[in-house]
Amino acid sequence: MRPVLLMVFASLLCSCAATYKQNTIAQPSAKLVRGQSVAIATPANGFYGNTEYHASGKMTALAVRAAFARFSNSITEWPECKDLVCLKGVKAVAADYYVIPEILHWEDRATEWSGIPDRVEVKISIYDGSTSRELASTIISGKSKWATFGGDHPQDLLPEPFNAYVESLY
Is domain 27-169 in CATH 3.20.20.70, yes or no? Predict the structure, then answer.
């Protein structure tokens, strides 16, 4: 009986942790410089099927901003810009780095009732401000834990992998 209880307890512990994956598209050739200015585009809202998740783009931009805030005091968000062309076209945007997040997948589920986890997938590309050359790019995906008790949403999956990724760039 004791081994069965241990296995049940172990499986519950395993289901209580969110999982993340990172797929590097463009490996940075050099570290980013601390203190340099950063401009962040705001991605379009995420969709799952016909459901649009309002403010998911803004929440993603805020999570990216929070990750970069540990390395720069000069960060600006541009809610009207979704891509590099827009950021480069705005004369007021002069930054050392341009960050373009793009929501690829956003799925908010009632995990506590259905057992289906929340899922999120975001592509983050970083460009040099003076040359517009891509410096780094990755796709970060996350899946919520099974035992959420009603508290998790896709935006809750963003800070941990974003912070780890941005830290690896500096």
Answer: no
